[in-house]
Each structure stands twice: as C-alpha cells, then as structure tokens.
C-alpha cells in the first residue's frame, strides 16, 4: 500500500480468485492466437505465463486487462466480469510492460503526479504518495530528471511505481525484465517479491524460465494457442522423467565403439557426444565408469544433467499440443549441462 493514510477499499476478491478465465479465444484474421485457454489464479500469488515468442502471452494480458476483447470465453478479474464490468476490472488492476505509460519528456516526479491526478488523489495526498513511492523504488535522487534520461531498470521501476499510485490489487507485468542487465533483473525480482507481501496478485509474462522458477507460485506454458502444461515449477519439472549423462569424445573410434555398445543412447554425431538416460546417482555413474574402463574406452568429458524448467519448456514447445510430454532429452544445442 503506498500510503497508510489512504483508505483501504473493500476488495470483493479478497481470499478468492484474482483471475478465473475459461475458454478464452482470440484470432487475428484466420490465425488463432488463443484457442480456448483456462486460467485460475489465487489472490496474493504470482502467476507466470511462459511461452515462445508470438505464443499469445501479451494477447492474454491485453484481454484480461480490458485493452482488447476476447472473441470467446469468460473471465472474472478481481471478482468482476470482464465484459459486463470492465470499469471495475480497470479500477482493480495495474498494467506495466510493453505498453509502458512512462512519458520521457517529463520528470519521474511529474509522471507520478500525473498518475495521482488521473486517480483523483488530492494535491497533498498525491505529493505524499509520489514521495513515498519514489523513495520505495529508489528514484528520489532522479525524481527531478526527465524520465528519458533514466536507465532501463529505472524506467521499469518508475513504471511500476506509477502503477501502484492506483493501488491495484492485481498487477500485470508483461516481460518486466526483458533487456535488463543481471543486477537490474535481480532488483526487479526483489520488487516483485515485495509486492506480493502486500497481498497484491502478480500476473507475469516472461521468456526467462529462471525468472518463472524464482518468482512464480504457478506457471503455465502457452503453446500453439493452448496451455500445454500448468503447475508449480517442481510439478512441471516432474513432467520430464529424468536427467541424463553426457559423454563427449574426441576420438571418433572411441565414440563409435561406445555408441554401438551402449543401449538407449541418443547420439550427437557432430559433437561426438552420447546422452544416456540417468538419474545421476553415484551407483549409475560408477557402473558406467567401470564399464568404460573394462572395455578400454575413454571419454574426454562426462557431465551429469538434471532436468530443469528449460527441459520442460523445450519438451512442451517443440511438439504439437496433442502430443504427450516426451521423455526425451532435448536437442544438443539447447543443453545446459551441470558439470560435476
Ligand atoms: P507473445 O506476447 O507471446 O510474444 P503476442 O500475444 O504478442 O505474443 O502475439 C501472438 C500472435 O498474435 C503473434 O503471431 C502476433 O503477430 C499476433 N498479433 C498480435 N497482435 C496482433 C494484431 N493487433 N493484429 C494481428 N496479429 C496480431
């Protein structure tokens, strides 16, 4: 809450669902972008919508924040019906991201005061809320400078601060850290975590799996217009049955010998690497090493790979939506190995 002095409005959604959507559809021309998606987001949680570029994440945010209309389906946001009570939805939400409201020609402080005016705060209250939020987002020193001179991270912070002037219960953050350097990204994560401690619900879209893993209580993967999977990060990781061991060779003869002798391996002939399904346990590693020794084959590198959200993402978004989650390891180019 930006100011303790402000009255706390009654929130009809408190304790209930922040977003409840069923069968949302949207097409552009003959291209179906959202093909009937359901979303259930409890109040006070962080929800991440993940998907490859063009999957329809922004379209979903635009629909739920009343910027565009869905072609079909129903949704309640903060307890209000999207089509019957769009004004009530708007009063309860804040949207930041790709359609940022920051005006670069005026100062950060002026941007904030403009927001306070839009929300009909009195002069004194507007100034007080502005000062508090600028302080909270570490923008006090830059408050009197034009927003166009701000760094990417500062602009995002100002954008969120401006959104909070309206005291929203649900905040839509469309790719809040895209283009930020690692330090600013971590800063933004802290800000998002803090928001949630005040009871705000966060609806986040992101291309970064790590971001969803770090922040989200629940994650939905959007692919081909459908929710391909939904759950906690842990539940999603469990969709991928196991990790693998990767053996890399420099000697083509050794590579071929191992590839022929070992069953259930996936070959990467170009990299001279073999992937073996494995839980990465000491017992499995020892038996593999013993076997390599016994047949006199020497691998140049052995790495153990445990499944992570990247595996889930690649598995889900590289197949058609009707295909069940494959247990395969992803293609070599995408591997993020944990060397041990
Ligand atoms: P994401 O946010 O996941 O990258 P978007 O929701 O922005 O995806 O876009 C989904 C698809 O819808 C893309 O193929 C995009 O080109 C298309 N699209 C989005 N907005 C429009 C529009 N106004 N007119 C036509 N096509 C659009």
- Report strand order across the widest sheet: 6-7-8-3-9-10
Cα distance, first to last residue? 46 Å
Give the H and E element order. Answer: EEEHEEHEHHHEHEHEEHEHEEHEH
Structural class: alpha/beta
Specify Rg, calculated over alpha carbons: 24 Å
The tally of domains stands at: 2
CATH-defined topology of the largest domain: Rossmann fold
CATH C-level label of the largest domain: Alpha Beta
Number of strands: 14
Query: What proportion of the residues form beta strands (DSSP E)?
Result: 15-25%
Calculate the mean pLDDT score and round it. Answer: 84
Determine the CATH superfamily of the largest domain. P-loop containing nucleotide triphosphate hydrolases
Which stretches are poorly predicted, pLDDT < 50 over at least 5 residues?
A: 1-15, 319-340
> Level of helix content?
25-40%
Shape estimate? elongated
Describe this protein's structure.
- Mean pLDDT is 84; it is low at 1-15 and 319-340.
- This protein has 340 residues and is an alpha/beta fold.
- It starts with 16 loop residues before the first strand and ends in a 23-residue tail after the last helix.
- 34% of the residues lie in helices and 25% in strands.
- The strands form 3 sheets. The chain has a 6-stranded mixed sheet, sandwiched between helices. The chain has a 4-stranded antiparallel sheet with strand order 2-1-4-5, with helices on one face. It has a 4-stranded antiparallel sheet with strand order 12-13-11-14, covered by helices on one side.
- The chain is elongated, with a radius of gyration of 24 Å.
- The structure holds adenosine-5'-diphosphate.
- Adenosine-5'-diphosphate (ADP) binds at residues 28, 33, 51, 53-59.
- The site of adenosine-5'-diphosphate has 10 residues, from α1.
């Amino acid at each position: 809450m930006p100011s303790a002095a402000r009255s706390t409005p009654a929130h009809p959604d408190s304790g209930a669902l922040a977003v409840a959507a069923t069968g949302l559809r949207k097409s552009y021309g003959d291209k179906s972008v959202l093909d009937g998606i359901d979303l259930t987001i409890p109040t006070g949680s962080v929800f991440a919508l993940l998907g490859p570029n063009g999957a329809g994440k922004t379209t979903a945010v635009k629909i739920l924040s009343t910027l565009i209309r869905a072609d079909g389906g129903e949704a309640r946001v903060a307890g209000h019906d999207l089509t019957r009570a769009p004004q009530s939805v708007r009063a309860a939400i804040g949207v930041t991201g790709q359609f940022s409201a920051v005006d670069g020609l005026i100062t950060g402080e002026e941007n904030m005061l403009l927001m306070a005016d839009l929300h009909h705060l009195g002069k004194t209250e507007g100034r007080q809320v502005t000062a508090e939020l600028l302080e909270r987002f570490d923008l006090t020193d830059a408050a009197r400078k034009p927003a166009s001179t701000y760094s990417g991270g500062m602009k995002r912070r100002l954008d969120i601060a401006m959104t909070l002037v309206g005291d929203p219960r649900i905040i839509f953050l469309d790719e809040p850290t895209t283009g930020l350097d690692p330090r600013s990204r971590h800063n933004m994560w802290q800000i998002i975590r803090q928001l949630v401690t005040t009871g705000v619900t966060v609806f986040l879209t992101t291309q970064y799996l790590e971001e969803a893993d770090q922040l989200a209580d629940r994650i939905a993967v959007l692919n081909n217009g459908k929710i391909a999977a939904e759950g906690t990060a842990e539940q999603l990781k469990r969709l991928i049955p196991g990790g693998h061991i990767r053996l890399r060779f420099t000697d083509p003869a050794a590579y071929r010998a191992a590839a022929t002798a070992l069953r259930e391996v996936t070959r990467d002939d170009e990299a001279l690497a073999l992937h073996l399904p494995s839980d990465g346990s000491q017992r499995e590693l020892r038996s593999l090493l013993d076997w390599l020794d016994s047949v006199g084959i020497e691998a140049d590198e052995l790495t153990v790979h445990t499944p992570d959200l990247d595996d889930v993402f690649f598995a889900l978004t590289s197949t058609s939506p009707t295909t069940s989650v494959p247990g395969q390891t992803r293609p070599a180019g995408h591997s993020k190995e944990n060397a041990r």
